[in-house]
Amino acid sequence: MRPERGGEIAKNATIQILDMYTYLHVHYWKKGEFLILDNWLVLHGRGDGGDQAISRCLERRAYGAV
Question: For labelling, which of 14, 15, 55, 62 has a CA lying 20 to 30 Å from the CA of 23?
Answer without folding.
Answer: 62
